[in-house]
Amino acid sequence: MVDVNLSEAEKTFIVHGIQDNFREDGRSNEEYRQMDLETGLMSNTSGSARLRLANTEILVGVKAELEEPKPEKPDVGRLEFFVDCSANAAPEFEGRGGEELATEMMNLLYRAYSASTVLDVSSLCLQSGKLCWVLYVDVLLLECGGNLFDAASIAVKAALFNTKIPSVKVRQEEGEETELEVSDDPYDVRRLDVSAAPTVLTLSKIGHNHIVDASQKEEACCLARLMMAVTASGSVTATVKEGRGSLDPDSITEMMQVGKRVGKAVNEKLLETLKEEEQKGLKRKTVGFLR
Amino acid sequence: MAAPMVKVPGQRLARKDETTKPGTGTYEQNGFIYSSLAGCVQKETSSDGSVQISVITDVQQTVVPSVEAIVTARITNVTPRFCKCSILTVGKIPLKEPFRGMIRKEDVRATEKDKVETYKCFRPGDIVVARVLSLGDSQSYLLTTAENELGVVIATSEAGASLVPISWCKMQCPRTLAEEFRKVARVQQEFLQYTDT
Amino acid sequence: MPDTRRITGPEETQSPFAFCPQFLAQSAEAFSDGKRRDGRKAEADHRPVFLKAGLISQAKGSAFAELDKTKVVCAVYGPHEVARREDFSMQGQISCEVKFAPFSCRVRRQHVQDGREKDLSTQLLEALEPAVRLDSFPKSQVDVFVTVLENDGSALSAAITCASLALADAGIEMYDLVVACTARIHGTSILVDPSFSEENLKTVSGEKPGGQVTLGFMPSLRQVSALCYHGDTDLDVLSQATQRCQDTCHKLYQVVQDTLVKSVEQRMNNS
């Protein structure tokens, strides 16, 4: 993560504030910052979303392609994640500088979406062993303002909600080659059911307490983080502990309880917002980038 | 003699109080002394009655040049402003992989620092004994030879023979009897041999 | 880049297992005749463990771990100068590399590190960093190389335990040893230390798919140094599984301690 330089006094100030459940910007320990979400911005993708969480800006594009399924899983389609930390966000991301952070984010996304109940990937398969839809989810990090993992996962879920896969008719006659008919009608599309898709919640341990949605300064004081991928029904699909410090087993249980509660709330609110936005249709006003 | 106790990292050794002190290979937490190495426990009682507990391992100790340590290095580069060298041992313990060190012009000797000509103090290939001044920067450690006991110990002359020290600033080749300039380390008393004149 | 050192065979190769139906068919049953698939009786039974420290003479420290059929070897080199000059810090660094031998899994692996191995390397680093005293070797780097010789499940936890044993054998100052354990959640049962076939159990229809959790634990200090889980379960089942892993780690700690003590005594007798 991009580091800010904090003095010992500033760190103590932040730690004390968190102890009293009153953070630097006035939030409580379990509050998120203001989020702005927009979907369907890019015409070249099957689905896209832009999320702005205070100073963090993430852009996700989903492209659906027809490919052969993996030999050990012939009946299912798949999701492929790719994260790119653009040099816009921080000069040290230039070239291969952001690779470590990008790999971590990709690994977490793969882990969160690995369970079969999260997304119905078997419906993405058109012909067993021969043809399936592969969804390439590309995440672009435009600005770094702390809490990148959460923002990326929320944007990914929104983009998947927005994804429109064209209907395909597969015709195979005896002895003849398979014929594909991809519909070019923009309204003859299939949507994905993302109600069981997870969003990541990062809980940072600072002092003896833990906080949700850490800003960059708070991240600099934190020694250990627990990242949980929680679905709308409250089940957990991935958990990773990250950071140089170690965690007490009791505080892990506490953090997971908080994570489940807040994660459920975030998921519900997200689905609500996405449905609202969709209902507005073409009449909604779009806001520009990096505003 | 009772076999010494073998401890592993994380095992509690003793409670920390005024008489017990943590030594090498141990750390203190929450009022207890824990072991941080896998080795034998050694208890040393000092003159004022306090006991120092340390854990000794016979694996070559994890040695990294620390500040104020005496190191032996081989000179690799000589420029008018500084000399680059490769640190071979820390104290008596040889390193498996050398670290990089640097001796600045003003750290070569204690007197007349500004009139130092590095080419007259060190040559590439010389073995020097130096003291670590600081951890330096990401590239190399900072060393100094500004003491009587520090400086060149082994050097080869231009003819190929091993140079013999004759004064604090000169060494002589035994084959050609030519004198070369070096910043020589003071030879220990036991290695001096007096002739009968 | 074409590999000119090995004869890789034609590009259109296929695994013979694709044509063998009984290998592909994953069972959904964890238990048969009241025993687990590899003969263990209880859910909480760990496979027999064999550990040895100090086997690679060239390395500063090394260790070998065997969990029934899973075999892992680890070598530690260092501390030496940091390879990348820009990283100047008053604390030392650890660099971990986990590699599966090409013959270690059912399907042949590539000799280049792939995404999964890089992920395991990151997890191993997470597990070891809290336990090592990094300020004892400033400006230097310690390399930890782990090779999985045979993978029959629980490869990551074997790697973590093996690596911390190797670090202690190398004489690197640590706050505590790290012991790791994996648990597979399948339906309502929590299988501790799953074998490869248990890790790939098919979901019982109608039930949640379960998941797999690996816990890296420091038994003396009672702190968790690594936690990684993927799957789809309820939080209480996950907490239960983590607790089960913790208890197993306490049992394993005794074995790790005895191995280290034995290797130190052996070294003392040899010198």
TrEMBL record, chain A:
<dbReference type="GO" id="GO:0016075">
    <property type="term" value="P:rRNA catabolic process"/>
</dbReference>
<keyword id="KW-0963">Cytoplasm</keyword>
<dbReference type="GO" id="GO:0071038">
    <property type="term" value="P:TRAMP-dependent tRNA surveillance pathway"/>
</dbReference>
<feature type="domain" description="Exoribonuclease phosphorolytic">
    <location>
        <begin position="31"/>
        <end position="166"/>
    </location>
</feature>
<keyword id="KW-0271">Exosome</keyword>
<protein>
    <recommendedName>
        <fullName>Ribosomal RNA-processing protein 42</fullName>
    </recommendedName>
</protein>
<dbReference type="InterPro" id="IPR015847">
    <property type="entry name" value="ExoRNase_PH_dom2"/>
</dbReference>
<dbReference type="GO" id="GO:0034475">
    <property type="term" value="P:U4 snRNA 3'-end processing"/>
</dbReference>
<dbReference type="GO" id="GO:0000467">
    <property type="term" value="P:exonucleolytic trimming to generate mature 3'-end of 5.8S rRNA from tricistronic rRNA transcript (SSU-rRNA, 5.8S rRNA, LSU-rRNA)"/>
</dbReference>
<dbReference type="InterPro" id="IPR050590">
    <property type="entry name" value="Exosome_comp_Rrp42_subfam"/>
</dbReference>
<dbReference type="InterPro" id="IPR027408">
    <property type="entry name" value="PNPase/RNase_PH_dom_sf"/>
</dbReference>
<dbReference type="InterPro" id="IPR036345">
    <property type="entry name" value="ExoRNase_PH_dom2_sf"/>
</dbReference>
<dbReference type="GO" id="GO:0035925">
    <property type="term" value="F:mRNA 3'-UTR AU-rich region binding"/>
</dbReference>
<dbReference type="GO" id="GO:0000177">
    <property type="term" value="C:cytoplasmic exosome (RNase complex)"/>
</dbReference>
<dbReference type="InterPro" id="IPR020568">
    <property type="entry name" value="Ribosomal_Su5_D2-typ_SF"/>
</dbReference>
TrEMBL record, chain B:
<dbReference type="GO" id="GO:0000176">
    <property type="term" value="C:nuclear exosome (RNase complex)"/>
</dbReference>
<keyword id="KW-0271">Exosome</keyword>
<dbReference type="Pfam" id="PF14382">
    <property type="entry name" value="ECR1_N"/>
</dbReference>
<dbReference type="GO" id="GO:0006396">
    <property type="term" value="P:RNA processing"/>
</dbReference>
<dbReference type="InterPro" id="IPR025721">
    <property type="entry name" value="Exosome_cplx_N_dom"/>
</dbReference>
<feature type="domain" description="Exosome complex component CSL4 C-terminal">
    <location>
        <begin position="95"/>
        <end position="135"/>
    </location>
</feature>
<feature type="domain" description="Exosome complex component N-terminal">
    <location>
        <begin position="8"/>
        <end position="43"/>
    </location>
</feature>
<keyword id="KW-0963">Cytoplasm</keyword>
<dbReference type="InterPro" id="IPR012340">
    <property type="entry name" value="NA-bd_OB-fold"/>
</dbReference>
<dbReference type="GO" id="GO:0005730">
    <property type="term" value="C:nucleolus"/>
</dbReference>
<feature type="region of interest" description="Disordered">
    <location>
        <begin position="1"/>
        <end position="27"/>
    </location>
</feature>
<dbReference type="InterPro" id="IPR039771">
    <property type="entry name" value="Csl4"/>
</dbReference>
<dbReference type="GO" id="GO:0003723">
    <property type="term" value="F:RNA binding"/>
</dbReference>
<dbReference type="Pfam" id="PF10447">
    <property type="entry name" value="EXOSC1"/>
</dbReference>
<dbReference type="GO" id="GO:0005737">
    <property type="term" value="C:cytoplasm"/>
</dbReference>
TrEMBL record, chain C:
<dbReference type="Pfam" id="PF01138">
    <property type="entry name" value="RNase_PH"/>
</dbReference>
<comment type="similarity">
    <text>Belongs to the RNase PH family.</text>
</comment>
<dbReference type="InterPro" id="IPR020568">
    <property type="entry name" value="Ribosomal_Su5_D2-typ_SF"/>
</dbReference>
<protein>
    <recommendedName>
        <fullName>Exosome complex component MTR3</fullName>
    </recommendedName>
</protein>
<dbReference type="GO" id="GO:0000177">
    <property type="term" value="C:cytoplasmic exosome (RNase complex)"/>
</dbReference>
<dbReference type="GO" id="GO:0006364">
    <property type="term" value="P:rRNA processing"/>
</dbReference>
<keyword id="KW-0698">rRNA processing</keyword>
<keyword id="KW-0963">Cytoplasm</keyword>
<comment type="function">
    <text>Non-catalytic component of the RNA exosome complex which has 3'-&gt;5' exoribonuclease activity and participates in a multitude of cellular RNA processing and degradation events.</text>
</comment>
<dbReference type="GO" id="GO:0016075">
    <property type="term" value="P:rRNA catabolic process"/>
</dbReference>
<feature type="domain" description="Exoribonuclease phosphorolytic">
    <location>
        <begin position="46"/>
        <end position="173"/>
    </location>
</feature>
<dbReference type="GO" id="GO:0005730">
    <property type="term" value="C:nucleolus"/>
</dbReference>
<dbReference type="InterPro" id="IPR001247">
    <property type="entry name" value="ExoRNase_PH_dom1"/>
</dbReference>
<dbReference type="GO" id="GO:0071028">
    <property type="term" value="P:nuclear mRNA surveillance"/>
</dbReference>
<dbReference type="InterPro" id="IPR050080">
    <property type="entry name" value="RNase_PH"/>
</dbReference>
